[in-house]
Amino acid sequence: HPDAERSISPHRAHVLVSCLECDDMDNSHREYEDVCDCEEMHAIQAVIQFLGEIHPSVVDALIHLLGNIWANDHGRSNAAEELAILASRKPDLRRSTIEAISASLIEQSSFSAFSRGSLVGSLIDLRAKECSAIVRKAFKRDLVDESVCGGYIEYLLAVSLPVDTEDRIVRNEVKNPSFFQRADDDDDRIEEILKKISHRKAQEVVEHNNKMRSFAGEASQKLQSCSLCGVKPQTVF
């Protein structure tokens, strides 16, 4: 509609975006911990995406909700997701979106590690390598739930940045990987799983770094031993 942009005032934009603060995540009977069962949410998100492309007030309202430490965690992470989707289609929103998500990622507040993991997921969706130092800081401070988005290594792989194998965070993730354990797992099984995950993660790092060197014209023709675990990878890309 030609009057659509004029018809959405900042107040109406904030009212619309506030619907992202769904109370369903407080329902302990949800089927999945990280999935909102609110039936209206998909419709709300569709409206926000449509209006967000033509009216800056909607984007401003999303940024405000994301940065509001008094809003509920679910609403804030929803706002980050909506901003990331808009920014993927509107390049002019990329910088402000990444800055807003990065600021909330490392803020000193009660913002949950689970929700911060969702923010890292949004940065990964944007392939946001510009904020790698902030993402590293979040993992260094143990602010992020790795079960949501993977660890710091997964972020580096996703945004195509080299992985520093001397980095303490990287080394710790390889040597002490996080994974879901079953209640009936004994110590021997857990140790076996740890070794397999550690070796696989180390191999992924070596292959990723070798692949990046090949793009830069510095590829080695040899299979290099990983400085993290000393094991040579079976293959390289």
C-alpha end-to-end distance:
50 Å
Radius of gyration: 21 Å
Reported for the largest beta sheet, the result is: none
Measured by DSSP, the beta-strand proportion falls in: under 5%
Roughly what is the average pLDDT, rounded to an integer?
A: 83
The best one-word shape is globular
Beta strands, count? 0
In which range does the helix fraction lie? Answer: 55-70%
Structural class: mainly alpha
Q: Sketch the topology as an H/E string, one letter per element.
A: HHHHHHHHHHHH
Tell me the number of helical segments per DSSP (H or I, 4 or more residues long). Answer: 12
Unreliable segments (pLDDT under 50, ≥5 consecutive)?
A: 217-237
Folded structure, characterized:
With 237 residues, the protein is mainly alpha-helical. Helices cover 57% and strands 0% of the residues. It contains 12 helices and no strands. Helix 2 crosses helix 4. The N and C termini lie far apart (50 Å). The C terminus is likely disordered.
Features:
disordered C terminus, 12 helices, mainly alpha, 237 residues
List the helices and strands and how they pair.
Layout: H1 4-7, H2 10-18, H3 41-52, H4 56-67, H5 73-89, H6 94-105, H7 113-125, H8 132-140, H9 146-149, H10 152-158, H11 168-175, H12 187-215
Helix pairs in contact: 2-4, 4-5, 5-6, 5-7, 6-7
Short synopsis of the structure:
The protein has about 240 residues and is mainly α. The protein contains twelve helices and no strands.
